[in-house]
Amino acid sequence: MEIDATALKSKGFFQQVQRDKFSLRLCMSGGTINTDYLKKAIEIADTYGGRQIHFTTRQQIEIPYITAENVDAVQKLLSDANIRTFIGGPRVRTVVACLGAAVCKFGQIDTNDIVKEIHDKYFGLELPAKLKIAITGCKNNCAKVEANDIGIRGVDHGYLMYFGGCFGRETRVGKPFLPVLKEKDTVLKVIEHTVSFFVTKAVKGERLGKLIDRLGIDTFKKAIEVAG
Ligand code: SF4
User: What is the mean pLDDT of residues 1-28?
Assistant: First the structure.
């Protein structure tokens, strides 16, 4: 069987070092899934994978050891369960979050609520470069927000936003350019303006932090303060 690894990758199946095997990455946001979702992942791993599930550093579920001939059957299972697969490349990636104030006694903001709104609106949106977003409920920073292009941290029951971070081949720490925002809707507007700024100003492959460096902090602040 001829294998088109690039096509399979676009469907969420990543070719392994064992080149006839693929690791399926599922789309989840905020690190929380219901048990039906997990049962479906287990069913796939048991039936078509290697009876293993891996949790990635960005809170994704990965199911390794799926062979190419089983991809169609796995896709049917996913489609019936309404489960999407991971989308990589120059896009808005899945949003990382801690449990936040709905569960954690230290939480200053409801992370679940804002994760869902951001994910539903932006996940998979094509951009000049990847854009990673993380939300953490308090100063303990379990979601490590400064390592993301956009980070949100709960502070005094408000939202402190960080911009321009990344962690990977290059590492840089995101910086806060705004005061603590008290309203979730203001945060969402700032994100909207940040994404718009990124789409219109960034060149191909340029992450948000480098764009801010190139155009200057004042230009960036002006663009996002319009929303605030
Ligand atoms: S960042 Fe704070 S709110 Fe979130 S899980 Fe950690 S301690 Fe709890």
Answer: 91
